[in-house]
């Protein structure tokens, strides 16, 4: 069929359509417009009278409030609605009920609404005068304009009442929480005025008389009220109704209005159901969920539900009436038609407005369609191969539709445009718009034709519509004609089938990315999306031990390599005598750097913040050959030392012990005879074997020789009971002037008793007395527990609550197997060995991951988390590494993405520097997380490698030399699996014995006659073992360590080493193999063929004179000065240069601060950096140099803004200089109180970027400019002294000095209509003390800090009420129990005191 035939066919179809429409209108006129008639167009030109099959339905409506007369409203449907099939049986609450089988379907016409925008009322006009541009209350204005037509002026006024109430509630909540801003913004003032207007307005009552001129309810609402009144009077308490509306606003307003009019509907309980997404729009409202609505509807809490299309699938048992109140979408109508609601309701009522085409179309969606076969038979012309009813008038265009044979769906003229757009977009492989041309005709230019032009890929000829009264109608008709052609070709079915898919999903074409060839980037992106927030926050990693310990187990010889642990107190005197110890290993350990141990005992005063330090040095010694008997003694001695420190029954097999501990003679020093090598010492003759034999003995204690008491207590540790794990005392002197019958006045413990002997009789169970009542007493002091001496927060052990023992009777005492000097040294060994393992891990990480390229002095803190409490951590290095990573990633993306804008560059950069990306690549490539030190050192939890807590099941794995622990021999003899004396341990070993015992304990059946063995360890002990093997690290911790390693790399070898570490960490920048990569690509940014023109050339030359730097490429300088208002294709604006300039300025600033104040806390360095690179500081610097005069722009507003700011900042500078001279101080940050135009800071950063690119990415150019201009300006005005005047720093310093740590500044988007405003809250112990709203983050935080500082200074008692950090810390120190409970042997319970365990 050629084009002319198609046009003739279309003309015939349009003529038949017009005839059917005229017949329909004649039928409606004959009914006096009381009925609604829907015509069904017949393709065979059959008369409309024959096609109209009318069906009468009735509904009883109460037409008055005070009469029971019933007016019958008769209406007719033009199409027969077949009766519904019997509903299936449904199950509710476990019982089977038959669903209702009869549903009366009604269509009720209403008069058109007489209300227009002229009926909005005086309140609307007052509020509109307050906001004439509709910037603040735009949504409210639209809601009022909608409701005044649908419900009437009364419901429209309710919008303002509801909004004013919400604002008052919000303001009251802010006042209650003390979050009221210091000064309201313009939006807040407008809201306050609106509330006052609503309060002052006198709202009229609702008038429901349609004959009255004061009637303020729409005819549709009046009809609804009449229906509901009649139904509720009939159903009474059994009434349940559901009203469907199109908009959420209508649902909320209608439910509120029905509840307010108790005189009309006295028992109504209405609630709106508008979907869960409404919570995002109005989070303070009381929204119903579907579950809540269903439950409350069933039990009668709600008897009338006003819902949008979200409620079509409600599962309710019974419903009196379902009402469609206004125009409904075709999709929702279809769902409602097939829903369960229409099968259980008694009446289904549709309200339509007379003469409203939208309601007519909505009604047609509810009517059942005839079968596809019958429709095709009636609608297909005999002579036509395909149906083509393209004639669409303005009145009936919404009713025409195309039947899609493949799916049975219909495409109307309203849908045609969207379907056609989807077809063209799929062909073009990108989301496109239709190419549409309009032709205006007629005398008054009121007739339009539309031509849709298709691209070649669409394979469609251009389509032109017929003459239509509007552009929209012409466009729809042309799209409809094109869709008919697609249907004729069989292409429309696939488009309809894909209607549920998003267009961007169908046409999505993945553009090439800078990360296409980077390993792991796509995997990291998928993993980050798939992991939940909790999963992203932390991950379990193995807690690595140095590989050198495993290597030691592979060496089997009698030669050991000593490492002397020497304590160098320098000019200070150690608190007591410490014996020098040796660390013996089977292989030679690498050199270890000396480190500091903190000794709070050396404090000269309690006010001294940091404890004095003692340096631990490692001195090498000649290899040592030990005899087998000596090696056994050293092995047992090492176990004894570990048990002494931890108070735990640790054991370790000799072939599993990775290092041994060996004491030297008392008084040994490095001045002892050295060997030929000045750095190697000979210790073979300096070993104190007597101390070794005593510690390796079977018993952990020895009796005191009463005859040589003075000699016995020298260098001895005393106990007041015969057991291994008990309190130990340091002897001070023997008191011959005191006896057990004495009552020492300086011993608080015995003050309530006549003598020390009486105290023992009263407190020691089964006390048998003493033989010698005249024996002297020993004055003692309590031995201090092991302290964490690696942290500057180390403090002396708190005093116990019970008075300690000061005097002991020698007859009741024993001497511990370790000497006092050895015992003192053993108490610091956990700290020493913890630091040794840290340094060994750092050396291993440097070797395995970084190939020995990094300086371990910097790598050690880079791998240490602040939670480790080691006195150093990665925070300062992380600040340096973060700025370098931002710097290098920005430059890399600038070069590799030359066409991307600033926004795209920001997105790409996040894929390199985000926490998840750094964590993923660090874990994937370098296995860096396992080397991170995050656990705080606890001496009581010291557990050398391969040490295990003893359990009787281990007896079979121990040889004779290892059976020295008190009480173990009896346990071993009781075990029938033990080896004979001198036998070798079984092949399985201790670990195998534990596993066998565990399996036996878990697999024994409960009904077995053999009793199950107890678990080897308690839950707490097993938790400690797991903690030794694993550590939990968050993504941010791993990312911070990666950035700190970059900082360490830069300190080691500047930017070359830092780039090398970027590749080691697997960051997706492999294309940048060296810094020459940037120089090789610099030429693509020069654009030497472009002339910057006479306008830009003088400005560039003036800027060069100011900066003292000659741009090698003037085009880049001009670009750096060009504002977005002046940008073009040839001359872009400064945004890309500002992107890299910002990163450059960040890096050079942090580098300067690190070199100058490297020992400061990371928080102070961050504040100093923020004070320099903030927009306010850079804007002041820009004006100070005069760069603001040379901005290339085309914005009059910009001229006014910059000029005004330049005057204000110049005045502020002069005032600050005068005040500094008068107060004899350095100039300060005079710019902090002013809000600058962002263009000024952007220009400064863009110029730095332009210098770098113009110099072919040679950093010397911008470094020279920074040192000459930036550094003097900021170092003169920004320092610790000027920073201390910042309210935030003052506030933080005040709280930190008090010892408070639970405070923060939180920043969120302000709850205002201006999206740029920031709200900052200062929170102290969960309470908001101050809130500020400002246009910038810095301004908001500064104002909130100032408000909180003023509040604390005027009400100092507020801190005592809210902050309890100091009190809690003091109480915990005073009441802190020992780190681990002291186990007590059962056979020695008779020696325990009744109340005080330290009884003498």
Automatic annotation (TrEMBL):
Residues 833-918, 1100-1256 form the RNase III domain. GO terms for biological process: RNA processing. Residues 1-70, 370-396, 974-1014, 1370-1400 are annotated as: Disordered. InterPro entries: Dicer_dimer_sf (IPR038248), Dicer_dimerisation (IPR005034), P-loop_NTPase (IPR027417), RNase_III_dom (IPR000999), RNase_III_sf (IPR036389). Residues 1-36, 1391-1400 have a biased composition (Basic and acidic residues). GO terms for molecular function: ATP binding; helicase activity; ribonuclease III activity. Signal peptide: none annotated. Keywords: ATP-binding, Helicase, Hydrolase, Nucleotide-binding, Repeat. Residues 997-1012 have a biased composition (Polar residues). PROSITE patterns: RNASE_3_2. This is Ribonuclease III. It comes from Dacryopinax primogenitus (strain DJM 731).
């Amino acid at each position: 069929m050629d084009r002319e035939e198609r046009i003739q066919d279309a003309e015939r179809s349009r003529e038949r359509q017009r005839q059917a429409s005229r017949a329909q209108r004649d039928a409606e006129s004959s009914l006096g417009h009381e009925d609604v008639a829907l015509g069904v167009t017949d393709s065979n030109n059959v008369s409309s009278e024959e096609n109209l099959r009318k069906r009468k339905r009735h509904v009883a409506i109460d037409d008055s409030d005070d009469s029971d007369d019933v007016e019958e409203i008769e209406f007719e449907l033009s199409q027969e609605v077949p009766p519904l099939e019997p509903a299936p049986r449904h199950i509710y609450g476990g019982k089977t009920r038959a669903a209702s089988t009869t549903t009366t379907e009604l269509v009720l016409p209403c008069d058109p609404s007489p209300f227009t925008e002229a009926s909005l009322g005086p309140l609307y006009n007052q509020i509109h005068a307050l906001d004439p541009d509709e910037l603040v209350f735009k949504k409210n204005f639209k809601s009022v304009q909608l409701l005044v037509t649908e419900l009437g002026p009364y419901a429209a006024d309710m919008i303002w009442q509801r909004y004013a109430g919400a604002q008052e509630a919000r303001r009251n909540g802010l006042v209650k929480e003390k979050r009221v801003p210091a000064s309201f913004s313009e939006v807040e003032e407008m809201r306050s005025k609106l509330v006052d207007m609503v309060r002052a307005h006198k709202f009229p009552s609702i008038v429901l008389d349609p004959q009255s001129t004061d009637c303020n309810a729409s005819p549709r609402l009046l009809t609804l009220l009449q229906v509901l009144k009649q139904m509720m009077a009939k159903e009474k308490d059994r009434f349940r109704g559901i009203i469907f509306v199109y908009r959420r606003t209508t649902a909320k307003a209608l439910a509120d209005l029905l509840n307010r009019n108790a005189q009309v509907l006295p028992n109504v309980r209405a609630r709106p159901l508008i979907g869960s997404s409404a919570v995002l729009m109005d989070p303070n409202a009381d929204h119903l969920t579907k579950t809540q609505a269903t439950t409350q509807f069933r039990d009668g809490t709600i008897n009338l539900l006003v819902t949008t299309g979200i409620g079509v699938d409600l599962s309710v048992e019974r419903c009196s009436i379902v009402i469609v109140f206004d125009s409904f979408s075709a999709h929702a109508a279809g769902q409602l038609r097939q829903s369960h609601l229409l099968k259980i309701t008694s009446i289904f009522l549709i309200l339509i407005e007379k003469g409203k085409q939208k309601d007519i179309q909505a009604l047609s969606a509810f009517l059942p369609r005839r079968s596809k076969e019958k429709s095709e038979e009636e609608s297909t012309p005999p002579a036509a191969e395909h149906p083509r009813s393209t004639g669409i008038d303005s009145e009936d265009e919404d009713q025409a539709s195309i039947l899609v044979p493949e799916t049975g769906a219909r495409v109307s003229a309203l849908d045609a445009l969207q379907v056609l757009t989807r077809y063209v977009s799929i062909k073009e492989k990108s989301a496109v718009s239709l190419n549409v041309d309009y032709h205006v005709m007629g005398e008054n230019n009121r007739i339009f034709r539309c031509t849709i032009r298709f691209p070649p890929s669409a394979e469609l000829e251009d389509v032109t519509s017929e003459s239509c009264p509007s552009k929209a109608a012409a466009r729809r008709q042309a799209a409809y004609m094109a869709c008919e052609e697609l249907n004729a070709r069989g292409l429309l079915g696939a488009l309809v089938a894909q209607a549920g898919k998003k267009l961007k999903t169908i046409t999505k074409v993945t553009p090439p990315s800078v990360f296409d060839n980077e390993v792991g980037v796509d995997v990291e992106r998928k993993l980050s999306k798939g992991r939940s927030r909790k999963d992203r926050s932390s991950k379990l990693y193995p807690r690595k031990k140095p590989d050198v310990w495993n290597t030691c187990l592979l060496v089997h010889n009698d030669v050991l390599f000593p490492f002397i642990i020497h304590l160098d107190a320098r000019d200070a005197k150690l608190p007591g005598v410490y014996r020098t110890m040796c660390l013996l290993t089977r292989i030679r350990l690498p050199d270890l750097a000396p480190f500091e141990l903190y000794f709070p005992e050396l404090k000269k005063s309690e006010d001294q913040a940091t404890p004095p330090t003692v340096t631990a040095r490692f001195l090498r010694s000649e290899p040592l050959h030990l005899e087998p008997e000596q090696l056994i003694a050293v092995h047992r001695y090492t176990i004894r030392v570990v048990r002494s420190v931890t108070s735990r029954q640790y054991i370790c097999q000799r072939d599993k012990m990775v290092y041994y501990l060996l004491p030297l003679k008392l008084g040994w020093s490095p001045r002892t005879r050295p060997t030929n090598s000045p750095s190697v010492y000979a210790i073979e003759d300096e070993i104190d074997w007597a101390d070794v034999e005593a510690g390796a003995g079977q018993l952990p204690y020895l009796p005191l020789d009463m005859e040589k008491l003075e000699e016995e207590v020298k260098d001895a540790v005393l106990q007041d009971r015969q057991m291994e794990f008990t309190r130990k005392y340091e002897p001070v002197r023997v008191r011959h002037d005191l006896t057990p019958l004495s009552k020492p006045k300086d011993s608080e413990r015995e003050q309530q008793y006549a003598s020390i002997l009486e105290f023992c009789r009263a407190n020691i169970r089964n006390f048998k007395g003493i033989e010698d009542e005249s024996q002297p007493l020993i004055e003692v002091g309590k031995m201090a527990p092991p302290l964490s001496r690696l942290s500057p927060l180390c403090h002396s052990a708190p005093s116990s609550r019970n008075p300690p023992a000061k005097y002991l009777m020698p007859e009741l005492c024993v001497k511990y197997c370790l000497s006092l000097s050895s015992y003192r040294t053993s108490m610091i060994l956990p700290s020493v060995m913890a630091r040794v393992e840290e340094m060994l891990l750092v050396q291993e990480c440097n070797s395995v991951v970084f190939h020995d390229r990094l300086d371990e002095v910097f790598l050690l803190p880079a791998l240490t988390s602040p939670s480790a409490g080691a006195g150093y951590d990665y925070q300062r290095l992380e600040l340096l590494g973060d700025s370098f990573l931002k710097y290098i990633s920005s430059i890399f993306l600038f070069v590799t993405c030359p066409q991307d804008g600033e926004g795209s560059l920001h997105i790409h950069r996040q894929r390199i520097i985000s926490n998840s990306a750094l964590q993923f690549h660090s874990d994937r490539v370098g296995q860096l997380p396992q080397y991170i030190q995050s656990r705080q050192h606890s001496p009581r939890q010291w557990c050398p490698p391969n040490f295990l807590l003893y359990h009787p099941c281990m007896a079979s794995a121990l040889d004779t030399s290892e059976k020295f622990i008190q009480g173990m021999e009896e346990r071993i003899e009781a075990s029938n699996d033990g080896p004979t004396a001198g036998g070798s341990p079984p092949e399985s070993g201790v670990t195998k014995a534990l596993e066998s015992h565990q399996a036996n304990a878990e697999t024994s059946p409960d009904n077995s006659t053999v009793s199950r063995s107890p678990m080897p360890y308690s839950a707490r002990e097993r938790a400690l073992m797991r903690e030794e093997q694993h550590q939990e690290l968050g993504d941010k911790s791993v990312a911070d360590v990666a950035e700190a390693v970059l900082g360490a790399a830069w300190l080691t070898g500047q930017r070359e080493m830092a780039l090398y570490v970027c590749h080691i960490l697997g960051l997706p920048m492999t294309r940048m193999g060296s810094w020459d990569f940037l120089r090789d690509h610099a030429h693509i940014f020069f654009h030497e063929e472009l002339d910057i023109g006479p306008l830009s050339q003088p400005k560039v030359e003036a800027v060069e004179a100011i900066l003292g730097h000659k741009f090698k490429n003037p085009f880049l300088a001009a670009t750096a000065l060009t504002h977005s208002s002046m940008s073009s294709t040839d001359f872009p604006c400064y945004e890309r240069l500002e992107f890299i300039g910002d990163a450059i300025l960040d890096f050079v600033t942090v580098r300067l601060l690190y070199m100058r104040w490297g020992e400061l806390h990371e928080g102070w360095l961050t504040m100093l950096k923020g004070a320099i690179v903030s927009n306010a500081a850079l804007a002041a610097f820009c004006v100070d140099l005069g760069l603001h005069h040379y901005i290339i722009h085309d914005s009059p507003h910009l001229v006014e803004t910059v000029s005004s700011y330049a005057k204000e900042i110049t005045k502020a500078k002069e005032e600050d200089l005068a005040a500094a001279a008068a107060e004899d101080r350095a100039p300060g940050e005079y710019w902090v109180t002013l809000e600058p135009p962002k263009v000024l800071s952007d220009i400064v950063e863009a110029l730095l970027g332009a210098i770098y690119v113009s110099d072919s990415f040679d950093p010397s150019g911008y470094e020279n400019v920074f040192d000459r201009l930036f550094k003097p300006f900021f170092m003169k005005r920004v320092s610790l002294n000027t920073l201390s005047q910042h309210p935030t720093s003052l506030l933080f310093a005040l709280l930190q000095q008090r010892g408070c740590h639970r405070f923060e500044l939180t920043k969120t988007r302000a709850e205002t209509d201006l999206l740029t405003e920031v709200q900052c809250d200062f929170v102290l112990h969960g309470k908001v003390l101050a809130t500020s709203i400002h246009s910038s983050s810095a301004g908001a935080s500064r104002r909130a800090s100032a408000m909180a500082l003023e509040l604390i200074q005027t009400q100092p008692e507020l801190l005592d009420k809210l902050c309890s950090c100091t009190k809690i810390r003091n109480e915990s120190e005073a009441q802190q129990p020992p780190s681990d409970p002291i186990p007590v042997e059962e056979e020695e319970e008779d020696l325990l005191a009744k109340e005080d365990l330290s009884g003498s």
